[in-house]
Amino acid sequence: MPELNRILYVEDDDDIRQVSQLALEDVGGYEVMLCESGQQALDSVASFNPDLILLDVMMPDMDGIETFHRLQDQGALDGVPVILMTAKVHPEEMARYREMGVVDVIPKPFDPMTVSEEIARIWERYHD
Amino acid sequence: MTDSSSDSQVNSKLNKLRSAYRSRLNEELERISEQAQEAHTHDDRGEALAKLRHRLHKLAGSAGTFGFHQLGNHARYLEQQVQRWINQSEPVKPQELEQLNKELSDLARHLGSDEAMSSAVGVESTEQSADSNSPAIALIERDSILADYIAHQLESFGFRVQSYQDPHELLNNDQGGMDLLLLDHRAGASEVAATPTDHWKALLREVACPVIFMGGHEDFQVRLEAVRAGAEGYFVKPLNIPNVAAKITRSIRKRRQGEERVLIIDDDVDLLAYLDTVLTHAGMTVETLQDPSHLLDRTSSFQPELVLLDLHMPEVSGDELAAMLRQFEKWNNLPILYLTQEQDQQERAHALMRGGDDFINKPVGEEFLIKTCRNRVRRLRDMQQAIALDGLTGLLRHANIKDALETELQGAARSGNPLSVVMLDIDHFKHVNDTYGHALGDVVISTVGTLLTQHFRRSDRLGRYGGEEFVAVLPNCDANAAERLVNRLREAFAEIKFVDRETSFSCSLSAGIADTRNFPGLMGEQLLELADAALYTSKQNGRNCVSVAPAQ
């Protein structure tokens, strides 16, 4: 299994970006790039070259789903799993996301002390 | 991931972020109500509502991350409500917006209780955790000698007791985390004189936990006052402490029974989301299912205590699903309610014959939905308890504790964790019965029941095995830990004074423990025999002590 090092997180909420830095860098020990909009993610994904992407769903202008499709069109998602960060989803909704190619959903609010472990578990399952 | 030295650094950083977030919250709550105001007045209500929903969505997604869970849950609930308004074609009614404003102001209240909660949770070591889990009782009694006596006796039962002179002193202190209030009905008598009931009602609303009154004498008027104020119990002085303790345990257990588990099947995704939100917000655990073909799997895995079935679905009807569930013996008593618009009496009668218990009419009112679900689950639990629990002690009956032991043994075998079986017996119980009568003997037995419930974890299984004999099954607990726990219980029991007219007396108990790690592969029956043999050793050694079955 390849090692998980670099995580790109697209999130428009300032508070969540700040606490994610702590949760992913300090607690999880990952290298993290935080983007505040889908556009910023499209611009910087190639240079950062992430192993995994976290996407907030409800964002103004370009939402998480559109960001997902445009990243896909850019070819930025080949071998790069995407996790959606959103409210609790129904099984039916989850099935639709899976069909799109989303690997998993982490429900918000997340616990900053354990979210890295959750990501690591999803990463393991993805490479199983 | 992190070692413990950097843990404290992370914690301090997190605390900084948390307080920064907290300092912005008031402003954010204000903006949210402004936005709601705008939805009131603005010409383009749709846009104002969309903005409002977005703010609530952000709050719902972030508050929990910073530890404000109740605030976040309430924001999620309001977000979904606004979302429904955005989805619906007819315009929002003014009184609905009025109602929303009221519920928005509740956000601040939830924030308050989140803060009270986080300040109540201190730093706790593992050794202390049992104590901080034990119920906290606030006691209001002006006679300080009596207050000390009551507090000391209740502490023997494993309660934490905090004494107050009068209601004001209680309200002026931080009461976060209080589980029950025990008070003399004459406390703060000056205010009582005018309108007693209103006074108590106001106090009880403030404390928001079960309340038990104590009174000087048996008096219809005072009892009525207690009932009207919402008290759960009324005891006449001099207090029979074991009875009070049993009542407290029952009141708190009712509160802590946990979330009601509700499974909802409907083909309408929006309605599912709505029902899910309303019931989850009311504190229930909800699972929803759009595809009825998974009904049996999901019912098995989720173990609901109530099923809501849409009566009319495209491929299969609700009454057919109800009939299917009823084919299984184990789901015979599971409450099933139909969600329907059907008014035809014959259709409804037919659906009832197929196995559903009642109807919830669409469109579904929130209040009615919550109360109906809660009531159904409560009845089910009461019935299950009446069947499984011993009436005197509230513990499992003989057959049920043996079943519970087998179940826990399987769990322990899977996990590889230790498990201890404890057998306890009241010393010289026949002498108590012969000297003080059976009524007082029953009080002694129920006292052991209360003590067991207080001293052990909720995951432990406790039963009344025979007349004065008890069994405790302690998963994840080796003989050493079990011995410590049981000794603590033994000492507490010896402290309790039973009152018989002019005299008082105390009792003791003996116990035997068998640890599965010393006897790998044995069945429940054999472990019980080993624990019983160890109990016999305790009796031989002079009683009032604990023995562990030696490894063979």
TrEMBL record, chain A:
Modification type 4-aspartylphosphate: residues: 56
InterPro entries the record matches: Bact_response_regulator, CheY-like_superfamily, Sig_transdc_resp-reg_receiver
Keyword Iron attributed: no
Domain Response regulatory per the UniProt entry, residue ranges: 6-123
GO biological process, one term: phosphorelay signal transduction system
CDD domains, A to Z: REC_RR468-like
Keywords recorded for this protein, A-Z: Phosphoprotein
Keyword Phosphoprotein: yes
Protein name: Response regulatory domain-containing protein
Organism the protein comes from: Halovibrio salipaludis
TrEMBL record, chain B:
UniProt-recorded Gene Ontology molecular function terms: diguanylate cyclase activity; protein kinase activity
Start and end residues of each GGDEF domain: 417-551
Cofactor names: Mg(2+)
Residues recorded as bearing Phosphohistidine in the entry: 57
Claim: Phosphoprotein is one of the keywords in the record: yes
GO annotations of cellular component type: plasma membrane
GO process annotations (BP): cell adhesion involved in single-species biofilm formation; negative regulation of bacterial-type flagellum-dependent cell motility; phosphorelay signal transduction system
Keywords attached to this entry: Phosphoprotein, Two-component regulatory system
Name of the molecule in the record: diguanylate cyclase
